[in-house]
Amino acid sequence: MATRRTFIQSSAAVGTGMMLAQTRLAQAADQGAYRDKLTDSDGKYAAAPLPFPYDALEPVIDARTVELHYNFHHKPAVAAANKAEDALAKARDTSDFALVKYHERELAFQLSSHILHTVYWTSVSGKGGEPRNELAKAIDKNFGSYARFAAQLIAATIAIEASGWGIVGYLPATGKLMILQCENHQKLTAGGIEPILVLDVFEHAYYLKYQNRRPEYVNQLFNIVNWDDAAMRLNSAMLSTTTRM
Ligand code: FE
Question: 165 CA distance to ligand 1 centroid (A)?
Fold first, then answer.
C-alpha cells in the first residue's frame, strides 16, 4: 500500500511526466518531429534514465517490478543490440557471414525491445483518464469512439500469444491510427508504424504483482496511461507526414 510520502513522490513524478510530454511536444513543433533518444554521443544504443522513481507507478506497478524491468530487461536488450551490431561489423570486416541470420535476428529483436521499452516508460507515466483534443478526434475518426478503441486495445493486448506488446501506432503513409498486436518485440507489426502508446505484456512487466492475471494488469494500466505523451507522439508523427504527388 502506498504511504502518503510515496504517493506524493509518485504524484510529483507523474506530474513531471506530463510536463516532459508537453516540453517534448513544444520541441517537436519547433524542430519538425520528436524522436526518442536511443543512442549516446558515440552512436551506441543507450537506455535513457527512467523518467520517474521506481515507486512512481505504485500501486499499479510495484517498485521492484519497475526496478527489475528497467535494469534486467530493458538495459540488457540495449547491450545485446550493440553486440549484434558489433558482430555484423566484424562479419563485414572478415567477409564471414556464416552467422548473419543469427545476428540480424538478434538486432531486430533487441533493438525493437529497446525502442518499445523507451516508449513504454513514457506511456505509463500518466494519470489515466481519457485522451483529449487531437488524439481524441483521431481515435473517434479511426475507431468510432474511445470506448470502442479501448475495448479493442484491451482485448488485443490481453490476447497476445505468449510475450509481446499492445501497440497503438500511427502510419504516416496512410494517415491511420492503428492497434497492433506485436509478438515478441518485432513480429506482427507494420513497417513504418510510429508507436504512440505501447503496453508491455511480457510476464516480466507484471508477474510479481499479478502472477497469471494479465487481464487485471492490462486494465490497471489504464490508470497510469499518459495520454498527453501519446498525443505528443501522434502530433509528432503527423508532422513527419509528407505527400508525394
Ligand atoms: Fe518489458
Answer: 9
Spell out where 55-163 has E strands: none
Determine if the pTM surpasses 0.85: yes
Q: Convert the pLDDT of each residue in 155-209 to its tens digit.
A: 999 999 999 999 999 999 999 999 999 999 999 999 999 999 999 999 999 999 9
Domain hosting residue 225, numbered range: 133-244
- Write the single-letter amino acid at 117: H
CA of 242 to the centre of ligand 1 (A): 33
CB atoms within 10 A of CB 129: 12
Return the closest-CA partner of residue 206 out of 179, 166, 169. Answer: 166
What is the separation of C-alpha 2 from the centre of its chain, rounded to a whole number of angstroms? 25
Looking at the domain assignment, is residue 153 inside a domain?
A: yes
CA-based nearest residue to 68, from 82, 48, 80, 50: 50
Q: Residue 18 and residue 230: Cα distance in Å, rounded?
A: 11
On whether residue 101 sits in a domain, the answer given is: no
Q: What CATH number is given to the structural domain containing 238?
A: 3.55.40.20
Q: Looking at the 3D structure of the chain, how many domains does it have?
A: 1
What is the whole-number distance in angstroms between the Cα of residue 56 and the centre of ligand 1? 17
Cα of 69 vs centre of ligand 1, distance in Å, is 6
Q: Separation of 34 CA from ligand 1 center, angstroms? A: 22
- For residue 59, being part of any structural domain is answered with no
The dihedral over CA atoms of 62, 66, 68, 71, expressed in degrees to the nearest 10, equals -160
Quick check: is 228 in a domain?
Answer: yes
Residue 53 Cα to ligand 1 middle (Å): 17
Distance, CA 159 to ligand 1 centroid (Å)?
17
